[in-house]
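Dear U.,

For the methods section draft, I wanted the exact inputs and outputs in one place so we can describe them consistently. I've listed the two proteins in the order they'll appear in the manuscript figures. Please don't edit the token lines directly; just add comments below if something needs changing.

First protein:
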Amino acid sequence: MSIPRIAAEGIRALAAHKLRTFFMMAGTIAGIGSLVVIMAIGKGTEQDVMKRVNSFGTRLIKINAGGGRGYTKPQAGVVTLKLEDAQAIRDALKGWDIVTCVAQKHGIAMKAGGRECQADVFAVDSDWHEAMPWPAKEGDGIAPEDMATLAHVAVLGTRLAKTLFPDESPVGSDIQINNIRFKIKGLLEHHDVSPGGDDENNRAVIPLTTGLRRVFNQNHLTYIRVRMKDAADVPRAAEEVRQLMHAQHHITPPEQDDFSVVTSAEVAEAARGISGTLNALLVALAGLALAVGGVVMMNILLVSVSERTREIGLRRAVGACRRAIFLQFLTEALAVTLVGTAIGVALGWGVSVLLPHVTSIKTVVSWEPLALAIVFALAVGLVFGVQPARRAARLHPVDALR
């Protein structure tokens, strides 16, 4: 008997038992559908993270308060990073474009127009807007004269502005930051969440001099941001900054650093590592769902073999060989997984397209899930279809007809 004819026999057998066939392919549908959605979410997340990483800038170096290597955040309570460090960088480092200082505090009390909330306060240099880059979309940003006069002016993020001034523009209004009155002179452009997952729009930006002397009452910084003229100089400059900070802080290796130097390459590497680990975990979960579906399919096929012993016996009695019986049942397993894969891909694709419209989850639909789904389906069909097919092929015609 030819292979096409054997395949046709298997498909007719599946069509004759529609409910049983559906139960066999249910696990494949769920597994493949979840695989497509998971990979779309993973790619969407990776794209989103890399977009945020790219916003860090390819020419930037960030010196954080607090030790560590690779991508690290500034550590609260570390008071070793000073204005003198920034000046030393300006004096010694070659090829820099901007060196800007930032001191920040989280959860500072804000009041305006009878409304209250908590937000982050960033005390910054006047060139901070260009270094980020993060200009004011309305009004003005922090200016050199604000720094020189210790001006009580602030620029608000969009979320903070919406919270305190829901029905009007905040520019020109007053706000109390930590019970100190400030005049709002600008509104920052809206930003997506940061690579670290923080909402950067819930902040107030004030002059660095005002923040250190009038609001925070401190002389230490949270981080220093350096923008190089040429991206190719970043690795060299990062190492020079590290050596310079060792000299500034009187650190002799192997003493632990009280600062960390972060570049865009390290941020990207950390983001790719996290994204890759997450994707691998999600794909493993989808693979587990497929394996469970394969076990269910195998057990139903084994039951089917028991129920169809007379059919198998008759076919063997009229001349069908073991190979034909084996191929028929293996074909049934592959047909179940391939049809289940097609339905699962269609459902997963639809969910992936719909998801960004009804939730904040971003997805990217591509051809990779389809290729992986077909590979998984063939693997599940072959691995879990062999045992039932072997059992059917081994049935003796006389025993099967009893």
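Second protein (the one for the lower panel):
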Amino acid sequence: MKFMLSAILIVFVAGTVCGQTSETETLKQQLAEQGRQIEELQQKLTRLETVLGESDALRALLRPAGTVTPVVVAASTVQPPAPTAPLVATKPASAAVGPQAQNQPQVAGFRFGGDFRFRTDAAFRKSSSTTIGLQNVRERYRLRFNMDRDITPDMNAHVQLATGAVNNGITFDQDFAGGVLRHPFFISEAWIEYRPTTKLSLRGGKLEEVFADNSRFLWDDDIRFNGFNERLKMGKVEIRGGQYLLVHPNTFSVPAGSPFLLAGLQQGQIARAAAMFHQGIVVDHALSSTWRGQFIADAHVYRNPNLVALTSTAAGATVTLNPALGIALSGPAPGTGNGTTAPGNAILSARHYQIVRAVYKLDATSIGGRTSLPLSWSIQVARNVGTSQLRDAILSTLSIGRTQEAGEFRASYTFAIKDANSMISQFTDDDLGTGIGTNLMTNHFRLDYAFRRGLVFQNLVFRQTVRRSSNPAESFFVPFGSDTPKTWRYQGQLAISF
């Protein structure tokens, strides 16, 4: 009896163990199958992300519910064009490439961003016996929309659409004018960048000048050139170069009565293109964990600069600007502060424009340990070595604070002198140099306050004095003389980045 019970027990236990073993094998097979399926899904997901340029929008769809993706707004899009740029080599926010740009909103690999600015702009000047007065109070706005796309791991493309009058290349602002007609929206930037290594960048298209720094000195922050530029970074040293095509007359023989005669060309002569070449070096150095410095030395040379001056004459615009755009402009380009050899012509009194510049910037990331109070000081000097008189320019800026977060403020002061032959007036800042660009001395005060991240209230005041008068004995003529009353200008604006 005991033997039978023992046999039954042994058979029962053996059956149970065999059943468990069978179930275990089944579970192992199911886990292996699920692992294979997960691996296949991961491979498909990787291929899909590659096709879509690793789109953040796709990741958001595949991320589990409840996961929040932070939205990063580039601080440089919050900051307006300002006298104090970061000391490192910078790019506009629209052209950002890297981790910050990858956090911008994306669709199928395209990164989007932009900014909107609403401005009250008021300029005043008394009249005199030689100068007409100025009273221009207006509302203006600026809208810029940026699109970026990585074509390959070492190449990307960028496009910017912006508002602004088509005959004014030194501002994106659009006046509240024209009744209820719709304002135009133009291509302001369009370039391709090739980065064969992390140290080398090559760009071509319509782009920002390679030494642009939003300082209001050489270039207006809204100006964009057609051409190419290069950057090579070697440790703390960066070498830069730019080649830009300005005016292409496409005229083999200048005919009688041609507007090109106003620029000094002769009848029957070939009207050769105007161009600019800009090369230089940037050196960064750290003084401490808080203080950094940067030194810049560069030179830019113009070929046939008279053709640039010709764009600011009514007759000249018909042969320099209209053919390039395919439309008849309502007026010439602004910026007539340079000296010419006669009233109304486009022969510059400076025989050549060969401008050398030196810059030093000093930057503290905080004051008293407060990162919301960075300090920045810069000084720039330039000389046009292509002439012997009225050829110098200087600008210095002191800035404290920032406007990245709610409640933060920024204050700055800028002093500038730009003689009539120091630089091309059609390209330099049109706020600091209201109406003329050069032949001026300006004091500029600024105070900004951040209501919240991405929303900044900015206040800018300019006080401008004309430096030199025309001198017929030296064949030197400028549109405004030293007896011109001071020009005051105020800009109050809301700047929004998105």
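Candidate sentences for the figure legend, describing the second protein: The CA atoms of residues 153 and 362 lie 35 Å apart. Residues 1-21, 54-100 have pLDDT under 50 and may be disordered.

Thanks,
Y.
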